[in-house]
């Protein structure tokens, strides 16, 4: 427990307070549990699954019990180990809620991968384990910098990243005030990954500018936006003209802020299929670049990628953060159901491989079709 070697997958915990102290071991490192001593090829897929589990930490023992039935399966192997590590961490700190997983694992030069979960605590209670204590962040940093052991490279990187981990955890919980916003969609694609540009200080939403306090768009305003008529058209009502003028001026303000050239601004258009409602109080109208500029390829430069006030998030992680910020209870229920279905799918695949008689194969196949149906339905939620 709390051992860190040179290679493998690890699960680390960052509990911090507003006073600048963190939960640490007596050896002045973050609490950390080894998950696997290798680097499984399924790591990123299983990490995305763990993000769903992270919305419902209280179910970890139930999920672990179910997954143990197929622990010999290669596809369930790492997930079972991840849940065992989470269970061990919950027991060590005496809490079920371990906070929110950081959006990407931390990797070091020694082929180690550290999955970090982060949580702000209001009170620093006494530690349930004699191997844990509360310490100043500066003390951990100083101790790790002085550690010359080769095995400490990964922990050095984790400790060095504490300020960034805390900042992101705080920023992801920031939500917008009531109103209607104009958001800017910019994507980046690689072979197997689609990322979206978000503000570093509010990663739960797209780059944006506020249009007004009222989040609702009237039928007349929306029809006007969809009609592609000019704001000077005499057929438009005064309210409609003012809405279009507001949209044009804010679009100019937003694109200028994002470093879009004057030539490219004219090629932008409003997404008029729907108003995106994040919550009853917050809604977005989306501004899209031209079709050849909306999605750049990996390595292609753009003003937004060079701006340090923005960062790139994988699209599924962005969606997760946004739901956690604006629809926390709904995403918790969804993730509970989805994580359970994922485990059930692994179990039924295991049953299919073990099935021998015709009846066993028929039963397993019927169950697999049943689970596949619900998994497909969950993708449309």
Task: Report the structural category.
Answer: alpha+beta
Sheet of most strands:
5 strands, mixed
First-to-last CA distance: 39 Å
Sum up the overall morphology in one term: globular
Mean pLDDT: 85
Strand content: 15-25%
Topology:
Blueprint: E1 8-16, E2 21-25, E3 32-36, H1 43-53, H2 60-67, H3 74-93, E4 100-101, E5 106-107, E6 112-120, E7 132-136, H4 137-146, H5 153-160, H6 162-172, E8 179-184, E9 187-189, E10 194-199, E11 208-212, H7 219-227, H8 238-257, H9 262-265, E12 269-270, E13 276-279, E14 282-288, E15 295-297, H10 303-306, E16 310-314, H11 315-326, H12 328-354, H13 358-378
Parallel strand pairs: 1-6, 8-14, 9-15
Antiparallel strand pairs: 1-3, 2-7, 4-6, 5-6, 8-11, 9-10, 10-16, 12-14, 13-14
Helix pairs in contact: 1-12, 2-3, 4-5, 7-8, 11-12, 12-13
Write a concise synopsis of the structure shown.
The chain is of the alpha+beta class and 381 residues long. It contains 13 helices and 16 strands.
Protein described:
With 381 residues, this protein is of the alpha+beta class. It is 43% helix and 20% strand. The chain is built from 13 helices and 16 strands. The chain has helices spanning 43-53, 60-67, 74-93, 137-146, 153-160, 162-172, 219-227, 238-257, 262-265, 303-306, 315-326, 328-354, 358-378, and strands spanning 8-16, 21-25, 32-36, 100-101, 106-107, 112-120, 132-136, 179-184, 187-189, 194-199, 208-212, 269-270, 276-279, 282-288, 295-297, 310-314. Strands 1, 3, 4, 5 and 6 form a 5-stranded mixed beta sheet that branches. Strands 8, 11, 12, 13 and 14 form a 5-stranded mixed beta sheet that branches. Helix 1 crosses helix 12 (328-354), helix 11 (315-326) crosses helix 12 (328-354) and helix 12 runs antiparallel to helix 13. The protein is globular and about 70 Å long.
């Amino acid at each position: 427990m709390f051992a860190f070697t040179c290679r493998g997958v690890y699960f680390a915990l960052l509990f911090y307070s507003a006073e600048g102290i963190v939960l640490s071991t007596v050896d002045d490192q973050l609490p950390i549990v080894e998950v696997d001593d290798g680097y499984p090829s399924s790591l990123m897929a299983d990490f995305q699954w763990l993000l769903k589990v992270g919305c419902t930490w209280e179910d970890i023992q139930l999920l672990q019990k179910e997954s143990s039935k197929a622990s010999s399966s290669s596809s369930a192997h790492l997930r079972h180990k991840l849940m065992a590590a989470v269970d061990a961490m919950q027991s060590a700190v005496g809490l079920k809620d371990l906070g929110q997983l950081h959006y990407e694992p931390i990797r070091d030069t020694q082929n180690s991968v550290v999955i970090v979960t982060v949580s702000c605590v209001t009170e620093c209670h006494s530690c349930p384990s004699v191997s844990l204590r509360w310490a100043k962040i500066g003390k951990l940093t100083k101790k790790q910098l002085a550690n010359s052991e080769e095995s400490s490279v990964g922990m050095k990187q984790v400790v060095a990243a504490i300020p960034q981990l805390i900042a992101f955890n705080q920023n992801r919980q920031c939500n917008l005030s009531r109103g209607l916003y104009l958001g800017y969609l910019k994507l980046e694609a690689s072979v197997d990954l689609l990322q979206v540009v978000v503000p570093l200080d509010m990663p739960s939403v797209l780059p944006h500018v506020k249009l007004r306090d009222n989040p609702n768009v009237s039928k007349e305003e929306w029809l006007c936006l969809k009609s592609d008529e000019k704001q000077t058209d005499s057929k438009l009502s005064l309210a409609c003209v003012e809405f279009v003028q507001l949209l044009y001026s804010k679009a100019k303000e937003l694109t200028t802020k994002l470093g879009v050239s004057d030539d490219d601004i004219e090629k932008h258009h409003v997404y008029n299929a729907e108003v995106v409602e994040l919550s009853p109080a917050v809604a977005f109208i989306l501004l899209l670049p031209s079709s050849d500029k909306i999605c750049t390829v990996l390595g292609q430069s753009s003003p937004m990628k060079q701006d340090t006030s923005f960062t790139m998030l994988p699209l599924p992680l962005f969606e997760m953060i946004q739901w956690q910020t604006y629809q926390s209870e709904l995403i918790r229920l969804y993730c509970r159901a989805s994580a359970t279905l994922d485990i059930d799918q692994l179990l039924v695949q295991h049953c299919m491989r073990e099935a021998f008689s015709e009846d066993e194969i028929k039963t397993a196949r019927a169950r697999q079709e049943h689970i596949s149906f619900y998994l497909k339905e969950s993708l449309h939620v």
